[in-house]
Amino acid sequence: MRGTRVWSVGIAALVASAIVLGLGAPSASASPQVVARKVLATGVVYQQLNDGAYPIRMYVVTFDPGTRATLDGVLSGSQIGSFQRTSAMGTSVGALAAVNGDLNDWPGRPTHQYVSDGTIMQTGSRAGVSFGYRQDEKGATIGHHPLRISATSKGATVAVSSWNTGGPTTDQVVGYSWYGGRYERPSVNQCSARLVAPTAVRWNAGQIGTGRDYTVDAVRCSRTAAMAVDTASSVVLSAKLVGKGATFIKGLAVGATMHIGWSNDSPDAMDVVSGSALIVQGGVVQYGSSCNADLCQRAPRTAVGVTSAGRVIMLVVDGRSSGSVGFTLAQLGKEMKSLGAVNAVNLDGGGSATMWIKGLGVVNHPTDSTGERPVSNALVVLPGADLSEPAPLRPRAAI
User: What is the pTM of this model?
Assistant: First the structure.
C-alpha cells in the first residue's frame, strides 16, 4: 500500500520504542538492535533488527498508505506451472522490495486462493487465510475469507465451485482459464460452455470483488472430446454429464451474456494472496506457546500484516542456524503485533523465506543448501503505479 510519510525516527528511538511495544518480551526479541536501515521510497522503509541474546535476525519492510508506491502480487510465470526465485520476480517487475508469498504446490502454483489485477487465477487446494490489499493502497483485509465465484445468465445464477483447481464433482460447476496452463483444463466426460469476448472489469456492489461479462460461444456435452480454452481471454465452465451443474450448462444459449464474478469480503481489493495461518486478528495473537503442531515450531518465517492506520508490514525471520533460531507461530504473532499489526498472516516459511531489496539483493539468509529457493509467487513493492492493473468500472445492472 502507498505511504504518506517516511519513518524518520532515529535508530535509538526505534530500539527504545520496539522494547516498549513488546519486542523485549521473552517470547519475542529481548533487546533488538537496528543494524541496517534504508528508505526505499517515500513511505517505504527497510530495516534489519538483530537480537544476539535470543538469537534472532529480522528483516522488515513497512509501507505507508498514500504515496506513489504500490503493492502487488507476482506469479512465477504467466501461467500456473513454474517456479522462480523471489529476487528474480522482484527484479523482473522493477520492484523496490519483494518477499516470498503463499505456500507452494506442485506443479508451481500457490496453495491457496489467488487473484491478480481483478482476474481469478485459482481457488487453490485449500482455503487458507487471505490478504486482500486495496486498489487505493490504503490498507488490506486479512482473515478467513474464502473465494466465492458465481456465473449468471438471464437471471439464473450458479456457484462456481473451483477455478483452475481440479475437475467437477456431482452437481458442481467449475471454471478454467488460460492461466491454468497445461495442468488445469477441461476434460472429457463433461458438459462445458466456452465464454469469449470479456468486457472491462467492473466492481461488484460495494466494491467487494469484481466481475466481467462474457458471450457464450459454444455449449457441448461429450464423453470423448474436451472443450478447449482456446484463447488467453476465454474461459470454460464445466460440469459432469448429469446433475445440477449439467442442467445449468445445457440451459445456456449460444450468444447469451454470462457474468462471472468473484468476492472474498475484501473491500476494494483487486489482488489477493494467501497464507497458512492467521497469527494476529483484531490485535489478538492467535497462537499460544503451548501449540506443539509442526506448523508452530521454530522456523524461518515470512509474514505480512496491516496496522489500524493501513500501514503494511512485511517481515522475514531467519532460522535454523546458530545466528538465528527462528520463530514459533506464537512468537511470530507477538512480533507482528509489537510492530503494530492488528491483523497478520503467516506466509510460506522454511527454505522459502526470502526478502529481496533493490540495490542490496537478498538481505536474509535462506536455509537451502543451494541458496535462495525458487517459489511460485511473491509479494512486491513497486516504485509507482501498477500499470497492469485496470481501473474497474461501476457495477453493472442485473443481467
Answer: 0.90
